[in-house]
Design a protein that fits this description.
Length: 154
């Protein structure tokens, strides 16, 4: 990263197929059960709202949202390991909420693992409240893990 990129404010740009190698490098590094290239391609092909978050060529994170009428379903929100803990997750989520609200979404829904303390803290601080529980939703080392279903008005 050079001084010019460092001086820029991170921004959202549309995710493209060209970016998938960089996205997958982060995805495979930070998740025990990562999305596959096929999962990202399906999201792009389905027209989901897919975003990169970064400064120039420096990828800090990314997000995928499915927009269904007035509800935005957050499917993936990730920050690169080296960039975590510096406020980028909070900023990425805030920018994402603004973008989907501008596209007509009135609420945002998401799932998070009960064991994901960083994710849960991020969403709680952003005003998400638990509205449900999906039993055995995620793969886990010792079988399956439930998902907390969280929602927030935008
Ligand atoms: C969850 C994730 C997106 C947070 O992004 P981040 O850039 O590290 O988070 P931020 O620095 O913006 O911190 C935002 C809030 O999250 C919480 N948080 C972040 N890291 C945390 C950690 N390791 N432990 C506990 N809480 C944490 C804090 O409450 C923080 O708020 P604060 O301002 O009070 O400190 C990031 O850790 C990540 O990508 N993790 C792996 C992928 C993942 O779990 N995605 C979410 C799936 S639902």
């Amino acid at each position: 990263m050079n001084a010019i990129w460092r001086a820029e404010r991170p921004a959202l740009t549309p995710m493209t197929r060209d970016a998938l190698a960089a996205v997958l490098a982060v995805e495979n590094d930070i998740y025990e059960f990562p999305w596959t290239r096929g999962n990202f391609l399906d999201s792009l092909d389905a027209g989901y709202s897919c975003w990169l978050y970064g400064c120039g060529a420096d990828l800090l994170g990314y997000a995928v949202v499915m927009l269904a009428v007035d509800e935005a379903h957050l499917l993936n929100l990730s920050v690169a390991r080296a960039a975590q803990g510096r406020g980028h997750g909070r900023a990425l989520l805030a920018e994402l909420c603004t973008v989907v609200r501008d596209h007509g979404a009135r609420t945002m829904l998401l799932e998070v693992r009960p064991s994901n303390l960083a994710g849960r803290a991020l969403y709680a601080r952003a005003g998400f409240l638990q509205v449900g529980l999906r039993r055995g939703y995620y793969p886990a080392r010792d079988g399956r893990e439930d998902a907390l279903v969280l929602r927030r008005a935008l």
